[in-house]
Amino acid sequence: MQEIQTILEKQVTLHKSLSVIVKEKTNFIIKQDVKALTASLQKEQSHIAAISALETKRIEAMEKSGHAARSIEEIAGSFSEYSILIPFQKQLIDIIQDIKYANDLNNQLLTQSLQLIHTELDLLVPSKREDSFNYTKTNNRSFQSNSIFNSKA
Length: 153
What we know:
The chain is mainly α. The chain has helices at 2-31, 34-64, 72-78, 86-124, 129-132.
C-alpha cells in the first residue's frame, strides 16, 4: 500500500504542475505569444507522458495488491488501511476538473482566434460571387486561384 500512496503523491504533484502550465497557456493565447505557447505545449506533453507512466505503475501496484479492478473508494470501504488514499483521490479529482476547465477556456479562445483569422481572410480575398454574375465575357482570371498565398514564390 505504501507504493500506491507514493505513486498517488507523485501524481498529485505532477497534476498540480500541469494545472499551472495549462493556466499559463491561457495567458500566452491571450497575448498571442506563439513562441511561449509552443514551449508550454512541450512542457505539457512531457508532463502528460510522466503522468501516463505513473498511472501504469499505479495500475500495476493495484494488481499486485489484488485490487486491480476496484476503485480506491471501494478498497477503502473494505480495508480501512486504504482510507489514507482517499484524500489523494479527492485532490486528483479537483485538480483534473481545474485542468479541464482551463483547457475548455483555451479551446474557446483558440476557436475565436481562428474565426477572426477566417473573417479577415474573407475580407482580403475577393468574393467568387462577383464573377458568377458576369455571363458576357470569359476571362482567364476565373481560372486563377483566389488564394492570397503564392506557392510559386
